[in-house]
Design brief:
This protein has about 160 residues and is of the alpha+beta class. It is about 35% helix and about 20% strand.
Amino acid sequence: MRSQENGPIKIDGIDKMILNAFMENANIPVSQLARDLGISNTAVHQRIKKLETSGVINSTKVIVNPNVLGYSTMSFVGVFMNKPSSYKLVLNSLEEIPEVIEAHFTTGNYGIFLKILCRDNLHLMNVLNQKIQQIEGVTRTETIISLEQPIVRQIKL
């Protein structure tokens, strides 16, 4: 493996198998992974550490099912700003809104494209009207409600 400063990280077949196994189940025991790959526990630990150090593995985290907690309205919101220089100010305000779960600085019509998670349409309307559209620098928003998310995956290695 090489650092990101020199371009994309090079990974071998064993690294790919480790990454695919972790993307499938981040709780897989290292001993089971070592057995499945036919290498030692130490070798698996060393490879995982190298993948973390190089930035290939960004983090391991629990994924909560929002529907079970009552958050059933997923939407995407295009944010229009009065001027591009408003970006940092608007972004700082968006970070304070817990329903905003992703923000992307984009090309095209929108200055910022958001992924928002709410309990229902009324909650979404409140977030849009009382929070996002009140941010200084935001001129308007355009909302798309997701009806279903049939594909959820990471990049295949």
